UniProtKB/TrEMBL annotation, chain C:
InterPro entries, alphabetized: 4Fe4S_Fe-S-bd, 4Fe4S_Fe_S_CS
Native organism: Muiribacterium halophilum
Biological classification of the source: Bacteria, Candidatus Muiribacteriota, Candidatus Muiribacteriia, Candidatus Muiribacteriales, Candidatus Muiribacteriaceae
Name by which UniProt lists this protein: 4Fe-4S ferredoxin
Keywords: Iron, Iron-sulfur, Metal-binding
Domain 4Fe-4S ferredoxin-type: 23-56, 59-88
Gene3D superfamilies per the UniProt record, alphabetical: 3.30.70.20
Transmembrane spans: none
A Pfam family per the record: Fer4
GO molecular function, one term: iron-sulfur cluster binding
Length: 105, 362, 161
């Protein structure tokens, strides 16, 4: 859910460009230029990848590009810090298993 | 081919922006790089009015202070590159940065590292479950991008960040189930605690989180009481249904780059971790390399800005060699304000830490 | 250790009030700021010079009730939202409180709201007499609520459906 009536901030969503992107084969929407992780969070997606050794689910933790909890595969490239990666129309975002691999699967 | 600048600043938080503001009064060709999409660091997420001195934007909301700093920067003198990470420093004058296009070499005369801090994690069962977020992450989602970040939150940590972020979450329509604090006392300012209490939020001191549980995401937390020696008291467990556990358990200075650069790094507990030794004008043991803000010891934004002013002033002076009395006068003002800011019981720790740091040999 | 460090609730003995405050017939500030924190905007905000932070910025604000004209700028400026204006005799049988309210939606003038004390306990009902927002308050809305006279020193938050 977006914060349309906030006591301090005005996000001016009506002036922003809505874009579509694909997450694990499903079409989702977000605003252009916002971090991919923020758009996913707004769509209710909490699990972004699985840890390399113990196969544990991982979501956002720091959201400032420091902790690598949000690494995902974006347009075929693994290990993208989605909390600081701006969303573009048509991005193909995939859940990342383990360390990810260069072929993007 | 590499680009050349007089001053290269890493980090566009309050410290980096303040450094650029002061430096640009006396010199030009200043570059700021930041790995985030938007400038402002932690400051751009602070929707509450700031404390501190009237002279330093007190009573202005953090997000507005950030805009004031950004608007004040001269476009001719200061170049800003977002989405750009600094990943290595090579003595005496080379910074390696990474952006969409790849790696680049940047040459500089002076360098100011204002890389901020990273939020701490604590150990409890399933602390890696999606839905365990740093307080700053909640702020990024709701205050920068307008995403309602959760429905029901339990906050761990009753320092200022835990208290303030709880209040900001409530402003975003999120329910705060409580603030849990291991210490017997509320660490943050009373006024922040009071805002939560009058809205009915319990603050549970001498309590901590035993664990969070759920299927692929946080669904509940179990908390328990702590005894005088911080030992868990059996039989005091309580289950709270939540979708998010928010951690506000302190920050650790980001000194990786300074460390790699060869700065003299010391562990100073009062400054929240490993920090680079620096002199009274924020210069490290490597001449021409400065540090400012949370990266030089976790304090708050007013101190970060003053340290930035100081580093920017000295860096510019060393390059331009302008009128010495102008330099000394400005130095004195910043020193005075830093000193006055660091008085009082809440700043004793940082004050002691800074003292310990400065007596170390350069 | 002082109780507020565990409860988050101010000790009212530490808060200064005008003499015979119950008899006052105009708004006066109640500054619930009792800790040595580095902060001084209240002292600069007051056009009458009624509030001062003397010496170090961490000193507690001092108030001169004689000088205060009840303008409420300090309520909007205080970063801790810790200043309230209280008028124990707002009308013949009501008192009133001016409090900062940074939530949405805003209550409507004339509407009835529930009142909460410093612990978040519901203590009664009040009526919204006025709502003001201004750039000078960094857009913190100030709400004037009238209530039973004996609630003015307790009511610190409002809610409504
Ligand atoms: C959740 C939270 C709430 C806070 N609330 C308050 C408050 O209410 N009042 C207050 O006074 N203070 C508050 N603070 C503290 C205050 O925000 C910080 O003290 C202040 O922002 C520190 O400024 P800084 O410039 O040192 O670091 P930051 O603001 O952290 O900025 C550092 C910047 O450096 C960038 N960076 C780091 N490493 C690199 C790299 N290698 N390459 C490129 N860029 C890099 C980061 O992206 C970031 O933008 C809060 C802090 C947090 C985390």
């Amino acid at each position: 859910m977006r914060l349309k009536d906030h006591p301090v901030l005005d996000f001016k969503f009506e002036e922003k460009k809505k874009v579509s992107f694909i997450f694990n084969g499903e079409t989702l929407y977000g605003y252009e230029g916002e971090p991919i992780a923020a758009a996913l969070h707004d769509n209710g997606v909490r699990v972004l990848r699985r840890s390399p050794k113990l196969n544990r689910d991982r979501g956002i933790f720091c959201a400032i590009g420091k902790c690598s909890s949000c690494l995902m595969n974006v347009n075929g490239i693994p290990n993208i810090k989605t909390c600081v990666e701006p969303l573009k129309e048509g991005d193909i975002v995939k859940y990342q298993d383990k360390k990810g691999n260069i072929r993007g699967d | 081919m590499s680009e050349e600048y007089n001053i290269v600043i890493v980090g566009a938080g309050p410290a980096g922006l303040a450094a650029a503001t002061t430096a640009s009064k006396y010199t030009n060709k200043i570059l700021i790089v930041d790995e985030n999409i938007k400038p402002g660091g932690q400051l751009s997420k602070q929707t509450h009015k700031f404390f501190g001195s009237k002279n330093h934007y007190a009573s202005v909301r953090g997000v507005n202070i950030c805009n004031i700093l950004l608007d004040g920067l001269s476009k001719e003198k200061v170049c800003f590159r977002p989405e750009t990470s600094a990943i290595g420093f090579y003595k005496p004058d080379t910074l390696i940065i990474q952006d969409k296009e790849g790696l680049h070499k940047i040459k500089g005369n002076k360098f100011i590292f204002a890389t901020g801090a990273i939020e701490n994690m604590v150990s409890f069962e399933n602390n890696d479950l999606p839905g365990v977020y740093g307080a700053g992450a909640m702020q990024t989602l709701m205050n920068l991008y307008g995403v309602k970040p959760a429905e029901k939150v339990l906050m761990l940590g009753a320092g200022n960040i835990g208290l303030i972020v709880s209040y900001q979450l409530m402003q975003a329509g999120v329910e705060i189930m409580g603030v849990v604090e291991a210490s017997p006392f509320i660490g943050g300012y009373h006024v922040h605690a009071a805002k939560l209490r009058r809205m009915g939020v319990p603050i549970l001191t001498s309590h901590t989180v035993k664990g969070v549980y759920g299927d692929g995401k946080v669904e509940k937390a179990i908390i328990h009481k702590l005894g005088g020696g911080f030992e868990p008291l059996h039989g005091t467990e309580k289950t709270i249904e939540i979708d998010t556990l928010c951690l506000a358990v302190g920050l650790t200075p980001s000194v990786e780059l300074l460390h790699q650069a060869g700065c003299n790094i010391k562990f100073i507990k009062e400054l929240s971790g490993y920090v680079s030794v620096h002199d009274d004008m924020m210069e490290t043991n490597i001449p021409g390399v400065f540090v400012a803000g949370d990266a030089s010891g976790v304090e708050e934004a007013s101190a970060a800005m003053l340290e930035g002013n100081m580093a920017g002033l000295k860096a510019a002076y060393d390059i331009e060699g302008f009128n010495r009395s102008v330099f000394l006068n400005e130095k004195e003002i910043v020193e005075f304000e830093l000193k006055s800011l660091r008085t009082g019981p809440f700043c004793e720790r940082a004050q002691a830490g800074k003292k310990r740091l400065m007596v170390e040999e350069r | 250790m002082i109780a507020y460090k565990t409860t988050g609730i101010v000790d009212m003995e530490l808060v200064s009030l005008p003499q015979d405050w119950e008899k006052q017939t105009r708004f006066f500030p109640v500054i619930e700021c009792i800790e040595k924190i580095p902060c001084n905007p209240c002292s600069f905000s007051c056009p009458k010079g009624a509030i001062s932070v003397i010496g170090d910025i961490t000193n507690i604000p001092q108030i001169d009730f004689e000088r205060c004209n009840g303008c409420s700028i300090c309520v909007g400026k205080c970063p801790g939202l810790a200043i309230f204006l209280v008028n124990p005799n707002f009308s013949e049988n009501k008192g009133a409180v001016i409090l900062p309210y940074e939530f949405r939606p805003l209550p409507e003038k004339g509407s009835i709201v529930r009142l909460y004390d410093r612990e978040g306990k519901e203590i009664g009902e009040g009526m919204i007499e006025a709502i003001r927002t201004s750039k000078a308050f960094e857009n913190t809305p100030l709400v004037t609520v009238s209530m039973e006279k004996d609630l003015v020193m307790c009511a610190r938050h409002i809610r409504f459906d």
